[in-house]
Specification:
The complex is a heterodimer.
Chain A: H1 2-8, H2 17-30, H3 35-61, E1 71-78, E2 86-94, E3 97-102, E4 112-122, E5 124-129, H4 147-150, H5 156-163, E6 166-171, E7 179-187, E8 196-207, H6 235-249, H7 272-282, E9 288-292, H8 295-307, E10 312-316, H9 324-329, E11 333-336, H10 338-341, H11 360-366, E12 371-373, H12 384-391, H13 398-405, H14 407-413, E13 430-433, E14 445-450, E15 453-456
Chain B: H1 2-20, E1 32-39, E2 47-48, E3 51-55, E4 58-63, E5 73-84, E6 86-91, H2 119-126, E7 129-134, E8 142-145, E9 147-149, H3 156-159, E10 160-162, E11 167-170, H4 179-200, H5 216-224, H6 247-254, E12 259-263, H7 268-279, E13 283-287, H8 295-299, E14 307-308, E15 314-318, E16 325-329, H9 330-336, E17 341-342, H10 367-376, H11 381-386, H12 390-395, E18 413-416, E19 427-432, E20 435-439, H13 444-449
Parallel strand pairs in B: 1-5, 6-7, 11-12, 12-13, 14-17
Antiparallel strand pairs in B: 1-2, 1-3, 3-4, 5-18, 7-9, 8-11, 9-10, 15-16, 18-19, 19-20
Classes of the chains: A alpha/beta, B alpha/beta.
Chain lengths: 463, 457
């Protein structure tokens, strides 16, 4: 109980986020007998992750076919997103990067010119979808499983997404586990070629949605020794498991009632690497994502956020209109589902909290909360642009929606140094559409460029 | 008795419910004049800044210099765009269970199963649909009779524009049956019908009876030959003597009742033609996901009306040898070949049992969204409009009344708040047969949803 009190200590408001985090970590570690080992492991782990990311980054920027070409793109309108739209804008692409953006740029010798009668905007960013990464149902808590380790990089899903204008995607594990594992942010390349990891282990995914317990069975009258015995079976159980694993990971003495019998399989909530990964995450190594769509799920997620003083990224948030205060005090952010934001003609009035879903962008902006879009499933990702177009029905402006699906998403995923806007020095991840604007449903994606590589769209009925 | 009830009851009910009027309709049937920024007529040219004058359920005048009579109710939509009311050619809206358990049920009618109070009809109005062709699903052989409905009215009979509209025939074999058996069963049903009908013919006068037994060759020709419907003397077959369960099939082969023929695969289109030719069937083809592969076959077929294409307008096709995937703009394939087609929506109810959702949240369940997706494939907007208006009307044999805006046609129209191809436009007004059926400013659910956001964004 003592340690819980330590965590619950009020902090001085003037401290920055980083200091706060350090204070909390230290206080947690004071009561941890394994502290030296823990610190070493953590240092090693962080170093390894960073080294790996750099290695992949270095490998990826090396020669790609076509990527070294110098290309000048002239478009009727360019949406850099980081700044206002440029009429008759030009983008100079060299070595797969954006060299310059503006008007009347000098045409370097040997440069290829691409004329676009319509508009050009940054490649869209999928904030989170289980693009082939399931959840390992052997356990309910698998924080240390890495999507990057098992991702089918040649999966068709990526090509379809690219055809829809999505050039970067956060790949999450499936939502069947309470803690599903570590997600990866990938860049999608044209032509069924291996996808490139931009950030491995970019975030840890947890799930409080009904998916995490749906179909689980309590085998009445039998000992829970079989593979088929899976907890939780209720929403309460889901929240319990998540909270308990937080305590476990932080090495806290479990409050009364949270201990589990030693010999039972139920006792093995987290193994050592699981605890390490979760502790890392709670200490700020990477964002913690929680899937929560219904009001009670969102409230549970935010309760955990404030209890453990860890900001969360809530994926879904459809019924979150009343939780914005709690969201902002825990410095959490949001990944909205475009389908919740839009008011489809057959909309859903059956859940009162969903009636405010279309106002979420405005409410989040007013509260100064970071948000982006996540479509959640492999079937939806290729349709991201169309779903965003439909979201405009509620009054969301095209400019705001575009920023949420590009620059804001890049920031939330920690890849804004590479992509998310058309700025000199960033990767040449671009999408060209016909005249009606980036999110116009009636115009189609003409071509997509990823790091200077071009994917043309079909001209007739087939590509 | 049964027969009398079947005919008289709907008429009586229609009369009764007709008196109280359509839901949400104005009490008075007086003339309405609608002025808008654009009028998309679907068949003729688009009219800029025109007026439509509606009286007694019909379009009385349409054009730029229409004199609006003083007694007419004038509705102005300075930014609005008028379209013919959208026509949904193939839906199961209002039916809770869409397929009968038995494979051959030509005698059932959707009018017996429709619940007028389901939210699908309200959603249809909200989406600008003024006509729905409700017909049983695709999982049976002879699935039953459909009805063309307007989405207003307290009783199915009051909603009906035309009933029966068509007979559903499906070429999809039920599970456990092969295509071969399915086709054989279809042919057998027609053979049985022919035997039944010929037995009802009065016997020829005694003197004309052949005195000699048939030769072997004559018998062989009789056995192998498909039934000859055209030479059947229909006038001499007493209609009330035809078994009630076979009567719709008799109407089908006689050419009175058309069919909606579902071809799950492109390869079934050929079989459909075979069936249509052999049994004198007028049919609208409902195509499946790979329907675009039947385009060459469809080009060569004369006298075929518009086809109803699969709701998944983009298809992915895998090359089984290389594993490469092609993205196919299916609707575009029909358009490029000049084949008139009607679009339908993905017919998914609710998002699963127990989800608490009444309606599908899939945008492809909305007709206007499907039309916009046609434009996305590079199909001219005028043609996209036709695929949701005049082409489905023609597929239903109602193009003389529905599907375009012209003098004398039913006053079925929808006013969008702006460009209908802009997702930000809303349906502001729906008029069905001269009466206001929907107004956005009187839609309580939308009012609730579209409360102004606290902050402009």
């Amino acid at each position: 109980m003592k340690s819980t009190d330590l965590v619950r200590n009020e902090e001085e408001p003037q401290r920055t986020r980083r200091t706060q985090r350090k204070t909390r970590v230290t206080s947690v570690l004071l009561c941890d007998p394994l502290r030296p080992l823990r610190l070493t492991l953590r240092r090693w782990f962080r170093g390894a992750t960073r080294a790996l990311s750099f290695a992949i980054l270095a490998a990826s920027t090396s020669a790609l076919p076509g990527a070294q070409e110098t290309i000048l793109i002239r478009a009727a309108r360019v949406h850099p997103v980081s700044s206002g739209p440029i009429e008759n804008g030009e983008i100079l692409v060299a070595g797969g990067k954006i060299a310059a953006v503006g008007r009347s740029l000098a045409l370097p010798s040997g440069a290829r010119v691409i004329e676009v009668p319509g508009e050009v905007f940054p490649g869209l960013i999928e904030g989170g979808a289980a693009l082939g990464g399931g959840a390992d149902e052997f356990r309910e808590l698998t924080p240390h499983l890495r999507v990057a380790a098992g991702l089918d990089r040649d999966s068709r899903v990526f090509e379809r997404a690219l055809q829809g204008g999505v050039t970067t995607a956060a790949v999450t594990p499936g939502g069947r586990n309470v803690i599903g594992g570590l997600g990866v942010v990938v860049k999608i390349r044209p032509g069924r070629r291996a996808q490139q990891d931009v950030r491995v282990d970019a975030f840890l995914s947890a799930s409080l949605t009904a998916e995490s317990f749906a179909g689980n069975m309590n085998l009445r009258g039998s000992a829970p020794f079989t593979f088929y015995h899976r907890i939780p079976t209720t929403r309460m159980g889901t929240v319990f498991l998540l909270r308990r694993s937080f305590f476990e990971a932080l090495g806290l003495a479990l409050p009364a009632g949270l201990e589990a019998p030693e010999e039972s399989t139920l006792g093995q909530f987290l193994d050592r690497s699981g605890k390490e990964t979760l502790a890392e995450t709670l200490c700020g190594a990477r964002p913690l994502r929680v899937r929560a769509r219904e009001r009670q799920e969102i409230e549970a997620a935010l309760r955990l956020a404030s209890e453990f003083r860890v900001p969360v990224v809530i994926e879904g948030f459809g019924e979150g209109a009343d939780s914005i205060g709690a969201l902002s005090s825990s410095r959490s952010s949001v990944l909205l589902s475009p389908l919740d934001v839009s008011i489809e003609v057959p909309f859903d009035l059956t859940r009162p909290a969903l009636r405010d879903a279309h106002r979420l962008p405005a409410l989040l902006d007013a509260a100064g909360i970071e948000w982006a879009f996540a479509s959640g499933s492999a079937a939806e990702t290729p349709l991201l642009r169309e779903r965003l177009g439909l979201s405009l029905r509620s009054g969301l402006t095209a400019g705001r929606a575009l920023r949420a699906a590009t620059l804001d998403a890049a920031r939330l995923l920690g890849v804004s140094d590479r992509t998310g806007s058309i700025e000199a020095g960033k990767d040449a991840d671009l999408v060209a559409v016909g005249g009606g604007g980036p999110l116009d449903l009636a115009s189609r994606v003409e071509w997509v460029m990823v790091e200077g590589e071009l994917l043309g769209q079909e001209t007739g009925a087939t590509r | 008795m049964n027969c009398i009830l079947r005919t008289a009851l709907p008429i009586a009910l229609a009369l009764v419910s007709g008196l109280e009027g359509m839901d949400g309709a104005r009490a008075a049937d007086g003339p309405i004049a609608i002025q808008a920024a654009r009028i998309v007529t679907a068949e003729g040219d688009e009219i800029a800044g025109g007026t439509i004058l509606v009286e007694s359920g019909r379009i009385q005048a349409i054009g730029n210099d229409i004199v609006v009579p003083p007694e007419a109710q004038l509705l102005r939509f300075p930014d609005g765009v008028v379209l013919p009311g959208l026509v949904h050619p193939h839906t199961t809206a209002g039916l809770r269970v869409v397929n009968e358990n038995l494979p051959d049920v030509p005698y059932i009618s959707v009018l017996d199963g429709i619940d007028p109070n389901v939210p699908e009809f309200r959603a249809a109005l909200r989406g600008g649909v003024t006509t729905l062709h409700v017909i049983p699903g695709n999982a049976t052989r002879f699935g039953g009779q459909g009805a063309v409905l307007r989405p207003v009215g307290a009783l199915p009979e009051a909603m009906a524009v035309k009933s029966p509209s068509a007979l559903k025939i499906s070429l999809a074999p039920p599970s456990g049956e092969t295509r071969m058996a399915h086709m054989a069963q279809l042919r057998r049903t027609f053979d049985g019908l022919h035997t039944h009908l010929t037995r009802l013919l009065p016997p020829p006068p005694a003197g004309l009876l052949s005195s000699r037994p048939a030769t072997e060759a004559e018998l062989a020709a009789l056995i192998g030959a498909p039934p000859d419907w055209k030479s059947l003397d229909w006038d001499r077959i007493p209609r009330d003597k035809i078994e009630e369960q076979r009567r719709p099939l008799a109407d089908l082969v006689r050419g009175i009742l058309p069919a909606f023929l579902y071809c799950p695969r492109a390869a079934d289109v050929f079989k459909a033609f075979e069936l249509m030719d052999a049994h004198n069937i007028r049919a609208t083809l409902i195509l499946g996901p790979d329907g675009y592969k039947a385009v060459p076959l469809l080009i060569g077929r004369s006298g075929l009306g518009p086809v109803v294409i699969d709701p998944d307008l983009v298809q992915y096709e895998e090359n089984p040898e290389t594993g490469d995937e092609r993205r196919i703009l299916a609707a575009r394939a029909f358009h490029d070949a000049g084949i008139p087609f009607a679009i339908q929506t993905r017919d998914e109810r609710g998002g699963g049992r127990g989800s608490g959702q009444v309606l599908s949240r899939d945008p492809a369940s909305v007709l206007w969204y499907q039309a916009i997706r046609l434009a996305q494939q590079g199909i001219p907007r005028a043609d996209a409009v036709r695929a949701a208006t005049i082409h489905p009307a023609r597929a239903l044999g109602l193009d003389h009344r529905l599907g375009s805006l012209a003098k004398g046609k039913d006053a079925n129209l929808v006013v969008f708040s702006g460009d209908p191809f802009d997702a930000r436009s809303w349906v502001d007004l729906v008029v069905i047969e001269g009466r206001t059926a929907y107004r956005r400013d009187e839609d309580p659910d939308l009012r609730e949803l579209l409360r102004r956001p606290e902050r402009k964004f």
